[in-house]
Design goal:
Elements: E1 39-46, H1 54-65, E2 70-73, H2 78-86, E3 90-97, H3 108-118, E4 122-124, H4 127-134, H5 136-145, E5 153-157, H6 168-174, E6 178-182, E7 192-195, H7 201-207, E8 212-217, E9 223-224, E10 227-228, E11 230-236, E12 239-245, E13 252-253, H8 257-262, H9 266-279, E14 283-290, E15 296-303, H10 321-339
Parallel strand pairs: 1-2, 1-3, 3-4
Antiparallel strand pairs: 5-8, 6-7, 6-8, 9-10, 11-12, 11-14, 12-13, 14-15
Helix pairs in contact: 1-10, 2-3
Amino acid sequence: MRGNAVRQPMGVANPRDSSVTCARLTAGASPQDTPHVTRIYDLVMTHKLDADDLFIHQVQRHCAEQGLNFFLVEPVWVEPFCDLFGKGKIWARALLNMHSEHHLPEDIYHRLVWLAHERKTQVIDPPDVALAAFDKARLHARLVAAGFHLPFTVIVPREQVESLVLSEADRAALGTPFVIKPALGYGRRGVILDARNERDLARSVAAWPDRQYLLQHRIVPRLSNGEPVYFRVFYVFGSVWFCWWNCFTDRYRLPTRAEEEQLALTPLRDMAHRIGALTGMKFFSSEVALTESGEFVLIDYVNDQCHMLSQSSNPQMGVPDELVTAIARRLVDGVRGLIRR
C-alpha cells in the first residue's frame, strides 16, 4: 500500500511467523461465545490490491470521519487475520467483500467471507445471497419471471456440453454469431463473442471450467455520436449511479444531464432498484444496452465485488474518480446503518 495507509493492528501476528490457514476456524460462534476477543473492528475489507488506492483511501477516510475503525485484509495479512478471527481473538461487525472467488471453495478469502457470515458479521454481501445473484444460470429464470428484457438464452449443464445439439428454433433465436458465457465467470474469461455452433462451447470450457454455460443472442447496442449506448449501473445500499461504458474499449464516462434527458435514462435506475429488491444485494453493478428498438436489455446481470480502479490511475479502464469517491462514501454510510441498528 502506498502512503502507509494501513498499519498492522495490535494483536495481529506477523505473517512471516504464521503458516496458518482458515482450516482451523470455528464457525457458528459470535463474540459473546468467545470471551477473549482483544479487538473488534467496525469494518474490515477484503482486497487483493488489484487496483489503485483511491477507493481504499476513501473508505478509510469516511470510516474515520464517522468514528468507525477499519482494517484492510490484504494478501499479506489474510492468513494471520483468519487465524485470529477463528480463535476468537478478533471480530468484525461488518465485512465489505471486495475479493473472494465464488468458484474456488479452497480460496482463503472465500473461506474467510463464509466464516464471517457464520460468525454473525454483517457481510456485504452475504456469500449465499451474492452467489445466488452472481450465478447467471440461477438468476436468469428469476429475471425473466420478473419481466426484465434479457437476450434469448439457452442454459447448458457442463455434462451436456459434448453432446449438445441445438434445435432449429434455438439456433434461429440465438442467431449467428452468438455469445457463450460461463455461469460463474467474470472479467471476460471464458466469454466467446463469435460463437457459431455448439462446438464453440469447448472454447469456453477450456478457458473457464464451470458447471453451467449460457448461450445468448448477441445484442447490438444503439450508437450515439459513434459510441455504443451501453451502461454500467452501480447499486449501493439503495443509491444508484450509472456511467457510459464502452463495451468495445472499456472506457467509462459520466453522462451529462442533457444525455440523460435525451436518451430517457430513468429506466436504468428502476432496473437497478428492481434487481436489488429481487436479489437482496446491497452492492453490485449491472451492464445494460439500449437497442435500436428502444429496449433497455440487461446484458451482465449482477457483478458483486465491483472493481473500483480509478480513472486518474487508468484513464482507459478506470471508473471516474468522483464516482469511486461517492460509492466509497455510500458504502460506509450503509455499513454505519447496519452496525448501529
